[in-house]
Each structure stands twice: as structure tokens, then as C-alpha cells.
Design a protein that fits this description.
mainly alpha
């Protein structure tokens, strides 16, 4: 029998930040063997941050700008 799938958490910028901190702690504990994990987390975090900035920040920021532009 197969196990039911656990719903995945949404990967937000905050979640990526948490993963980045965890990876840094892992490198501090385990040494350079864990460095690729930290490097990957850092790339993912920076890419997500850049993507968010490119689309104008958070959804809240986007809506606020839209409301300010309304007559």
C-alpha cells in the first residue's frame, strides 16, 4: 500500500530564507561536504528575491500601487 501524499508547503521567500539559514548551520557543523547545499539554497533565494523585485515586490505592494493609481 502506498502512503498518502503530504501536501507540500508553498515555497515562499521567507521559507527559502529559513532553508538558507539551516544550510549555513549545516555547513558550520559538517564542513565543506555540505557546501553545495548552501550554494544551491543561496542561488534559489537570490533568484526568488530577484523575481519578486522584478514583478514589483509583494502582492500587497502591487495592490497598494494599483489603488494609489485609481482616480
Amino acid at each position: 500500500m502506498s502512503r498518502p501524499k503530504t501536501p507540500a508547503k508553498e515555497i515562499t521567500l521567507e521559507r527559502l530564507g529559513e532553508m538558507l539559514l539551516f544550510a549555513a548551520k549545516l555547513v558550520d557543523r559538517k564542513g565543506s561536504i555540505a557546501q553545495p547545499i548552501l550554494d544551491r539554497c543561496e542561488r534559489e533565494y537570490l533568484a526568488a528575491k530577484q523575481k519578486q523585485a522584478a514583478k514589483g515586490g509583494s502582492q500587497l505592494d502591487r495592490i497598494k500601487k494599483m489603488l494609489e493609481a485609481s482616480p
